[in-house]
Amino acid sequence: MPPPDLNQIVAPDGTARTLQAPPGCPVLYNPKAFERPMFNLHGYGPSIIEGTLLTLQVSLSSLVIAMLLGMLGAMAKLSPSKPLQLSAQTYTTIIRGIPDLVLMLLVFFGGQVFINQVAPLVGYEEYIDINPFMAGVSTIGFIFGAYMTETFRGAILAVPRGQIEAAYAYGMTRVQMFIRILLPQMIRHAIPGFGNNWLVMVKTTALVSIIGLDDMVRKAALAAGATRMPFTFYVVVAINYLIITSISVTALKWLEDRYSLGVIKA
Q: Which of 9, 40, 99, 187 has its CB surrounded by the most CB atoms within 10 Å?
């Protein structure tokens, strides 16, 4: 049975009339659309792959920033210094209380306004345009640095205090104690939370499309607009994200098993 013609309307007298779209305007329904293969990307495949690679670049770059901020934040929270504790607590509270999308827009648009207002004060008169890649990476890294702070803090606290005291008793410096005693053991405790943060971070990279960065979500949106096949391209994007997260889960499971060798599980 052929699909109904959505360009037809039924008049009050019961007769069917075909709608005629003005020149240059799209019709409501195109019967030939049913003849297209669902996953025919119409030559946009390389563009989606290019966007996928950019998504991975954003994810990995943001991860580096998040790990650095997370470690600094965790050390600040565990520091005996009250100002450091307060600074880290304020950072994690504010970041976890503001939606990621709002922070992305604030950094990209608000940061651009701020920089261009400050630049003339130091003698730079030309307009400064913030790079979308740098804005996206810094924002996502800054956001997930707060979550990594709590992950690393919990992992450090999970290491028995007696082992740290024993390291100092053997004459180790703070750096030696951290590298030889604390870091190897905290990694095992941090991997589950770290993995969750990484998986959420990968999906959060989709937000960079709203500031004009050509990740795979934006590439898919442009292709969908050109071909009028949004379902096809967004399904491809969903599959790409699923592949990335599935590989990540496998790698994280291997790391967790590797760092749990010799550990007796309850």
A: 187
* 189 close to 263: Cβ distance less than 8 angstroms: no
For 156, the domain range is: 60-213
Same domain for 242 and 182? no
187-198 mean pLDDT: 93
Q: Are residues 122 and 91 in the same domain?
A: yes
Distance between CA atoms of 93 and 128, rounded to whole angstroms?
Answer: 31
- Cα(195)–Cα(259) distance, integer angstroms: 14
Which of 36-45, 106-115, 184-193 shows the highest mean pLDDT? 184-193
Q: How far is CA 73 from the centre of its chain?
A: 20
Convert 4-22 into a string of H (helix), E (strand) and C (coil): CCCCEEECCCCCEEECCCC
- The count of structural domains within the chain is 2
Q: How many angstroms from the chain centroid is the CA of residue 176?
A: 34
> 168 and 225 share a domain?
no
Q: What would you report as the CA-atom Rg of the chain, rounded to the nearest whole angstrom? A: 26
Is the residue at 3 inside a domain?
Answer: no
What confidence tier does 258 reach under pLDDT thresholds 50, 70, 90?
A: confident
First to last CA, the chain: 62
Per-residue pLDDT, averaged over 127-152, amounts to 91
